[in-house]
Write the structure tokens for this entry.
Amino acid sequence: MSIIRSVVAGCGSYLPERVVTNQDMTKIVDTTDDWIVERTGIHARHIAADGELTSDLALKAARAAIAHAGIDAQEIDTIILATTTPDNTFPATAVTVQAELGIHHGAAFDIQAVCSGFVYALTIADTFIRCGQAKTVLVIGAETFSRLLDWTDRTTCVLFGDGAGAVIVKAGEGEGTNADRGILTAHLHSDGRYKDKLYVDGGPSSTQTTGHVRMEGREVFRHAVVNIADTIKEALAATGLTANDIDWFVPHQANKRILDGTAKRIGLPPEKVVITVGDHGNTSAASVPLALDQAIKDGRIKRGDLVLLEAMGGGFTWGSVLVRW
Ligand code: ACO
């Protein structure tokens, strides 16, 4: 039986030039390199320059993904940009990217699921493609998360960074088996009972300010490992595959301890886990495509590999996507 599959045709990413090390952070808040490394695995993060916007990072990642896919930008009929840090409250940052790419057809919109944003956006792209709504989708995760940080709060400001990653997803044909190239299964979740565990204390409707990130770190940690492991089990159950079948695990890069805990819980050896949190920090919606791009460009992820993506973030929101490269 021939079915439509959403095939990842190319990937790209961009990190701002400025690197802020843990040593640099000790000059800003009362912290140490040892504390940050031991609790999070983070050594450094990239921070956008003054005047460098989320759309600037997104555009660079998008151009890299378009080049990697070897397509003409005019083939793109849908742009989905996941971000918590849009250039403006409206219009969507996606339309700025659309205009900069010279695309005047199709649809461009943002989605907001915080750190799960890229997994949400990729799942929407897959649904659009399988329904025949779209044929070539540019999916971007881009953040200037540093702009939401309270730089006097050591419990949050050491954790995050800025960056962007993007993929091109194209309609392809498959046989409806796990050997098909493309997205094999995708699962999204949210549970708003936990919306106060990780949030920003401002917004257009509430305070008319942007606000700052607030978080109950331990609660987030506790839920993250359980929720992520559950959605991975869900992806494996939906396809009849096992953890042994996974070639590469590309998780949301929040904290190395969360990654290690999750991999252990689902029985994945550390050498199959792509980890970039040490150099990037948590870049929210950008973290999964940034990690993906690194593993593709350094030759780890190859055509035909089974790649498991997952993320969890504020809301709580979480989800997984299993894709045959
Ligand atoms: N430097 C030095 N000391 C610090 C720092 C810091 N940057 N931050 C907190 N501390 C202190 C605290 O004040 C506290 O001191 P006290 O005992 O004197 O009160 C002590 O360290 C322990 O604080 P905890 O918050 O209990 O530390 P914990 O071991 O829970 O680690 C952390 C904190 C790293 C935030 C952890 O809870 C965590 O990783 N949670 C997950 C959060 C996360 O990853 N969020 C990202 C967004 S969500 C997502 O993407 C999944």
